[in-house]
Amino acid sequence: MLKQKIHIIGAGPAGMIASIRLARAGYNAVVYEQHNNVGFRFNGDFQGIENWSTLEDAQIFLKQIGVEPNFTFVPHSQGSFFDSGSNRFDITSKRPLFYLIERGENLWSFDQGLKRQALAAGVQFKWNHKVEHIQSRMVISGTGPKAADVIAKGIVFRTSHPDGYFGFLDDRIAPKGYAYLLINDGRATFATCLFEDFKHERLYYERAFDRMKNLINIDIQQPKEFGGFGNFFLPSITTGKDNILYVGENAGFQDALWGFGIRHALTSGYLAAESIITGQPYEKLVQEQILPFLETALANRWLYARLGNKGYRFILKYLGKRDVIEVLRKHHQYTISKKISYLVARYWYRSRLIDKQCLHLNCHCVWCRCGKEADARQNRQIKNEKLAVGGVS
Ligand SMILES: Cc1cc2nc3c(=O)[nH]c(=O)nc-3n(C[C@H](O)[C@H](O)[C@H](O)COP(=O)(O)OP(=O)(O)OC[C@H]3O[C@@H](n4cnc5c(N)ncnc54)[C@H](O)[C@@H]3O)c2cc1C
């Protein structure tokens, strides 16, 4: 007999992994998704599951949380970066720097792979179901980002270029961020990621595209534009007063340094399920297993944003002579100096770290626009606009 029914809002990686874990433990896991399939937020673009923040390989991480790589999953240990002077730096690592995956609705996308695993575990999906009100007490909310702290603009296209990855660090094409080109099996993704000056997004994209075309001899067939955004805030929301567990980007779990949020989405979804199964407080699990990464990432973001083009060149030169994984992992450790940098960064970014997306009614977070600190006028406005994702119905 099935155990309790658990409502999960959002069929992103965070919601799906929570549903898989719960269904495998015998719970009646029901996922509500506003679209008629998974992966709607993405466009067949390639992304990376980063492999530098932890000692164990990302493959082991996936195994530990029960994810089978039944999707495109390609290791990359060698690639090239370009600085603002078009100097090329070849980067290598002993183990893969990241695993390339595809996002979206295609058959071998990460999203479809997780969906297949969820269906096999017995998860029920309620498609075309946009949740407006939460009435039940057992809810996991993984509705993704609502505000933009980082944006990406790019194209997906077909090409005959050999597989590989390329990165571009230059504030004139990607302010405080980076541009990237990922090529796999006749298809490619090129995008620029901006952490500042969003209103000139097209200008940066055009400059980035020209730079990429000048530096890489690549044919571009059937290009299709895409864009997206990421959302991070601290303190993140874990559990609302109403006992809703927030996971993934909906909770603010995003990598403030470069926007590699997939591992946080998976970890938080898994931990939310674990807390229901074992009775351990979700907040405590998050504090132990996610928060140090978020704080380190914010500290790193503050440091990275101070580098400028000369700093990027210095870093690339430094990385070019070493195993890049070792260097990156060192900088992802939650050391005393990172804790101090985090405090500085948190003060520096205090106005940006507000939970701009939190539109839940009666939520407990003091930073949001509708929590107990919020201005009643704003609250009314939000209710009137019916923006709140406040329930399962
Ligand atoms: C262009 C781009 C490139 C990226 N590249 C990388 C990368 O290389 N590596 C990396 O680690 N991360 C990357 N990220 C970030 C990563 O994709 C996200 O962190 C991750 O998808 C977050 O997962 P999630 O489950 O929290 O949310 P989402 O993936 O956003 O899923 C949320 C789901 O909830 C559904 N939903 C929303 N509201 C409701 C509602 N009211 N009712 C029902 N359903 C609802 C949505 O339709 C969606 O399916 C990238 C992001 C972008 C935009």
How would you explain this protein's 3D organization?
Helices cover 33% and strands 21% of the residues. The protein has 393 residues and is α/β, with parallel strands linked by helices. The protein folds into 2 domains: 1-43 and 51-69 and 103-149 and 231-393, FAD/NAD(P)-binding domain; 150-230, D-Amino Acid Oxidase, subunit A, domain 2 (D-Amino Acid Oxidase, Chain A, domain 2, 2-Layer Sandwich), CATH 3.30.9.10. Helix 1 runs parallel beside helix 3, helix 1 (13-24) packs parallel to helix 5 (262-278) and helix 7 (291-305) crosses helix 10 (336-348). The chain binds flavin-adenine dinucleotide. Flavin-adenine dinucleotide binds at residues 9-15, 32-35, 40-41, 47-48, 50, 130-131, 142-144, 152, 228-230, 248-250, 254, 259-262, 265, 389.
Task: Looking at this protein, list some descriptive labels.
binds flavin-adenine dinucleotide, 2 domains, five-stranded parallel beta sheet, disordered C terminus, seven-stranded mixed beta sheet, 393 residues
